[in-house]
Amino acid sequence: MPGDAPGSAGRPAAGRELHGGVREARMLDERAPVGTLRVVTDGRTVIDIAAEVTAATGWVPARIS
After folding, report:
1. Which domain holds residue 42?
2. Tens digits of per-residue pLDDT, 4-62?
3. Is 36 a member of any domain?
4. What is the Cα–Cα distance from 57 to 49, expressed in whole angstroms?
5. On the chain, which terminus has fewer CB atoms closer than 10 Å, C or N?
6. Rounded to 5 degrees, what angle do the CA atoms 10, 18, 42 make?
7. Quick one: CA torsion of 53, 33, 41, 4, rounded to 10 degrees?
8. How many other CB atoms are found less than 10 A from the CB of residue 44?
9. What are the start-end ranges of the H helices in the chain?
10. Is 47 domain-assigned?
């Protein structure tokens, strides 16, 4: 099928991305050092994500929503 990568076994591109994302998340869970911050980004604004990250670093106080 046009646009499908070799070895994709006919899986649509979105399905490959989701599968790859799940695999990457599992690898992060297994290999990230203890204390690594994992930030949930789904459905959040860039500003909200940035506020969480900068608060976690101690650069700025936590934002109260």
Report:
1. 13-57
2. 455 555 667 666 666 677 888 888 889 999 989 889 998 999 999 999 999 999 888 76
3. yes
4. 13
5. C
6. 155
7. 140
8. 13
9. 13-31, 46-57
10. yes
What is the spatial distance between Cα 50 and Cα 46, in angstroms, rounded to a whole number? 6
- Tally of domains in the chain: 1
In Å, how far are 1, 30, 40, 52, 62 from 36, measured between CA atoms?
40, 11, 13, 14, 18
Question: Is 4 within the bounds of a domain?
Answer: no
Q: Within a 13 Å sphere around the CA of 47, how many CA atoms are in the beta-carbon half?
A: 3
Look up tokens 């959040």; give the residue. Answer: 44
Question: Which tokens is 52 given?
Answer: 């969480």
Within a domain: residue 64? no
Closest CA to 38 of 19, 58, 20, 52: 52
Identify the pLDDT of residue 63: 67
